[in-house]
Records
---
Amino acid sequence: MIEKIVEGVYWIAGKDKFLPDSHVYLIGLPDSGDFTMVDCGLMEMGSYKLSEIESIGVKPKDIKRVILTHTHLDHIGCLPEIIEAIPGIEIWVHEDEGRYMERGDDRVIWGNKMFESMIRAQMTIPKNYFDLKPHRKLKGGEVLDLGGVTFKVIHIPGHSIGSIGLLNEEHRLFISGDTIYADGAIGRYDLFTADASQMKSSLELIANLGIDYLLPCHNRVVKGAAGPMIRKTVTNWAPLLS
């Protein structure tokens, strides 16, 4: 079910299967005709995510881009389905993972060989399924007007080399990808291109943003007063990331 968080920001909860399915966030004011999906989810979840978006009257043709918080399988898996349903939709991703995409190097997507073997044993995935090219490579620091809602791109490596978050300063709202979740959890830092020291620095950066709304890509969202919870999470994890 799609849920409005603030004006111009909507949450579609992931539907976990044998793997976690990432949440999707839809950004754009209702009458803008210019909407952005943040992440898309596992394979076979494209129709679910698009049907939820259509349920609030947003037409697929008005979804102009997908911004990927990072390119792990549970965030990018149904992107080919989205592209097929919306020809011309753009892919925006941080440049550090965009380079992997451009080379056809899918090691970031899988995370490690064990995950790849497990998933391929359960699903038939064509050889070139993830042969996707980004339209825009982000660096971090960009201020984006997304259908009348402003977000700043924050580069937060650690979970993956090109992980990003999106900060809306008006509402102190942060879409955190898999870097930090609610209730004391953080993203894994043992996958391909992950790095514990970078994760520590990224968590400290997030703790200093003054966030009220925390919108991670798994588990629950926090709709106000998220700052103390974030600070406690960062403090608790710091010794383990040193």
---
Amino acid sequence: MKKILFYILAFLLSVPTMAQEGEEYKMELGAGAGLMGYLGDFNGSITKDLQPMGSLVARYIFSPYMGLKMNVSYGKMKGSSDDVKTYYPKFAQTPYQFDNTLIDVGFVYEYNFLPYGTGHEYRGAQRLSPFVFGGIGATYLSKGKNQEATTKEQGSGIFSANIPIGLGVKYKLGERTNIGLEWAMHFCLSDELDGQKDPYDIKSSGLFKNTDCYSTLQLTFTYSFMKKCKTCHNDDE
């Protein structure tokens, strides 16, 4: 009887460890889909004129708390001078409208508030964790059907840097599968995302003075690969 109780006790004590068994991975690859919104001279609301967007996502995992993510996003950006209460003299008679295409390439550092993962190497690993991120990106905008653009100008490109800052939540569906919901604000260094630079024709100065920005809200799905070596740290022993 004592032996039976001993084996039962040993099994119960091993359950928490068994539940945390799992591989840890260095990389994630996946995609995302969501909405993109323009904020600038012709729109002051983050919920107005939202357009569809898609992304390719790659993430390098430093630890359960930290990671570096790269994304390549594609989306549309629409707006009109009719959408704001601000009076622009040169658009008083004929409202200005634009329909542009935007490509964003960004690198952001992510910090998880909880030790994200399922592996047994990290006690207290959590499948669900909120996170914040920030970094740097590059924006390419292709002018579309802008009301004032000539045929030659339509399709011309604008390059600019942007600074993305955001927050989100991620959940590990399985040992290798991850789902995340994230929102970001991209502070752009250009005032021409809408095709107009200084609608009042007043020159401005300063890094972010009178510049445009855009927000993104997307759901991502990634697949983990590149298993971490569990014994590498013992090689020198």
---
Amino acid sequence: MIYKPICVDAYGFTDESQTVVRIYTTKGGMITAKRCPTIKPLYCTRDGHFFSLSRFGLNEVKPCFAVPKNPKVCHTRYPFMRQFGNRTCHMLVALTWIGPRPEGYQCDHLNGDMLDWSADNLQWVTPAENCKRAKLLRVLRSIGRDPRKMSREELLEIFNKYEFTNPQNID
């Protein structure tokens, strides 16, 4: 994911609870952002841009790529938001746009690119499914197909084709 900053021209909330904000850019576009599950007011878009609301208005917050203070909370290889509780960017986007994490599930990057934390690239999967998908992505790369250039539908079709059956569910 190539991180291109967004210049905010104006913004407005869609309701009184301030959970959804419409951001109007200087280039004439409009983006919708939702409130992240953080203590401080943080909003994120579907493509992974973060905005902080302060008394000065809505400002874009860039992720931190430095080593976190507590490595047990956050892995060093993932971009994270230090000022919002050391939460990784992909987890904040997934919790905001996909929904709460089911018990025992992990957040998976469909195309295997850890720097692409857009909501279209994330999905909740079991740890076993996450490992299997990682192996399939390595095989795709070894035969010359770049998963980052494939569409979400193509990747899901490949994952479904090689889906394994859980022995515990067999009657």
